[in-house]
Amino acid sequence: MGQGDLPKFTVIIAQKNHHTKLFQADSPDNVPPGTVVDSGIVHPRQYDFYMCAHAGPIGTSRPTHYHVLLDEIGFSADNLQKHICGYGFPGGDGSEGHEG
């Protein structure tokens, strides 16, 4: 097995234990599912972002804080965020049971 055969990795930590909440201006509703914040409140020199990938009861949604520790694959920020959202929530919003 040569060097060219080694897989590439992307390492991401998902943090839910934080005190950050996202709000819409002039609305009591939660931010829409899929909302991403990757500027302003993130670390200036690290690759991190907040994503609220799911819907929740009004006033209770807390975004996940993602820390990208390693990206050998070379995802663009948009593609990585879409991948995480699609991987974590592949269908539906998880609020309904499934029969079968």
Automatic annotation (TrEMBL):
It comes from the Eukaryota. GO terms for molecular function: nucleic acid binding. Signal peptide: none annotated. InterPro entries: Piwi, RNaseH-like_sf, RNaseH_sf. Pfam families: Piwi (PF02171). Residues 1-82 form the Piwi domain. This is Piwi domain-containing protein. It comes from Setaria viridis (Green bristlegrass).
